[in-house]
Amino acid sequence: MTDFTTQRGDGGETHQQASGDADVLTTNHGVPVSDNQNSLRAGARGPTLLEDFVLREKIFHFDHERIPERIVHARGSGAHGVFEATADISDLTRAAVFTPGETTEVFVRFSTVAGGAGSVDTPRDVRGFAVKFYTREGNWDLVGNNIPVFFIQDAIKFPDLVHAVKMEADRAYPQAGSAHDTFWDWASLMPESTHMLMWAMSDRTLPRSFRTMEGFGVHTFKLVNAAGKAQFVKFHWKPRLGLQSTIWDEALKLQAADNDYQRRDLWEAIDTGAFPQWDLGIQVFDEEFARAQPYDVQDATKLIPEEDVPVRIVGTLTLNRNPDNFFAETEQVAFLPTNVVPGIDFSNDPLLQGRLFSYLDTQKSRLGTTNFHQIPINAPRCPFANFQRDGLMQTMVPKGRANYEPNSLTAHGEDGGPRESPTRGFVTVNAASGDDEQGDKLRVRAELFADHYSQARLFFRSQTESEQAHIASSFVFELSKVGLEQVPARMVANLRNVDEDLARRVADGLAIDLPDASPTARTPVDMAPSDALSIHKNMKATLEGRAVGILFADGSDAAMLDQVIANVTGAGAKAVLVAPKIGGAKLSDGSMRKAEGQLAGTPSQLFDAVALVLSADGAALLTKEAAAVQFVMDAFGHLKAIGATDAAAPLLDKAGVERDAGITALDGAFLEAAARRFYDREPGVRMLA
């Protein structure tokens, strides 16, 4: 029996409101809650107000739910590096970190979001991309993800999102995945999540490596120059190796082959001197541009197409040192969106505003003390001084009596301590961030926040046919795991507002009738496709930074094996020798060649391409070895290049390989093919929605 009515708010958000004598949602102190969807703000687009005790309590309680593991982003991998500013943007910002030629130490932490610290590296999940800059003006933390948008528009919904996607409360599974009832029940009732769902169901959540994924600041921030002029900015990290993702079947098998696949990949790349690099880009625009868009730039579920505001490269990030101790550095590093430096400021994005409150509280909960900034990985590299004293685990020993200001102790020959600096200190922009930042205190959303489908449509229609098939198939897979019968149809009804073909394909894949489109709070508009949103359109045809598995066995041609290794390493890739036995095999010249991986434990999903350097006898023997057949079958099924000797043909045939442009001899054609994947092969190896 339904004990609530459902209403839609001004932003299209779902309000489930108690009827009659039904239980009413309250705070922990019994105060009834009138609106559980919107924070209290000064005007529709104004800042979130600190007096909002409903938001404060909800976020406060959420921040303390886990000790000491992070509630989200628990499983992470980190590395040290440097950021070098390469462009003069002093007209935009006074931040010293952007002084041309300035080199700044950084610590970067990559992470999955939903799983616990003991989960795996390769689920379908958003990846965190958090960068701590140790600038000479203090720490700046750019705390983002590998996706430029998010599920929600208002921070008050963050606990609900995470509760829904985490393990179900009564059974503690599934771990690190969204393919279950509670997530899709929540998502299907939250139209604002639709754009993010398109990204989440795409290959963006299956990155090949941390080194081949983009990073985004997600929110709209501000850059402020020396004269106090402010402009809006979006931050982008562009990988030097280009974009690269796995496919779903491959990700599943990677999880079985190596739970630490991406952690190991990052560590080994740095350890061998193949330092990962990203270019930092900015999209800068003013209030006039913002007002002219059919979306609100302070809405975290929206992006700004690069075709409208090109990304300008302003610096380069290089990761060049692995942590000395995982716990002391990667686990104890504390990122705070409130860590900004003079020249960088916040917008009124209501999701960002909530994060500005939440993170400081979270770090105290996790690390047990307000003095967490004294932990070496969190301590600024520049001098810092204030009058904050004592507290749990205080490690500094301030001298003298000056623990307050103003004071006149210097006039009496004592150290009076530090003082404020109007010229050097951080000053927030003393100007409104847009229209409507005034008036009554309201729990509302700005008008343009109500469009939840236009950018989801933009994203889907910007993908290649293969990528669209992967998105449709991902929705089918995830929704097929949902046991709540109303949820799949409700989700497909939302998808009809994105793209009719997508909705039809998902409905067909689930074998359900195509439902009517769900009502929209604001009519979607068509936006021009953006190539920047596609992985396939931004992949680089290169072997640099990638890995090639070379399968050999007794009788393999020694000279050919050496030549293949030389060709692969010469192209910038890592050559990994795989044999039936870890001790290696006896080659055609009588020499023994040791393997780096034993066949049964080194499947082809660990590599970007494979080479089969086999003799006739070796190939005949391996046709009777299931691991060898699976090695080749998976490489073909995962759309990778396979280079092979003529003698390896029986193994190719046993694995069901059909010759195409990705099946080559072990010559220059293999190197060319190995630099990419063959997505036109996919319809022949699996059924897609």
Automatic annotation (TrEMBL):
Decomposes hydrogen peroxide into water and oxygen; serves to protect cells from the toxic effects of hydrogen peroxide. It catalyses: 2 H2O2 = O2 + 2 H2O. One of its GO terms (cellular component) is cytosol. It comes from Sphingomonas adhaesiva. The active site is at H73, N145. It comes from the Bacteria. Residues 26-413 form the Catalase core domain. Belongs to the catalase family. HPII subfamily. Residues 1-40 have a biased composition (Polar residues). GO terms for molecular function: catalase activity; heme binding; metal ion binding. This is Catalase. Heme binds at R70, R109, F158, R355, Y359, R366. Its cofactor is heme.
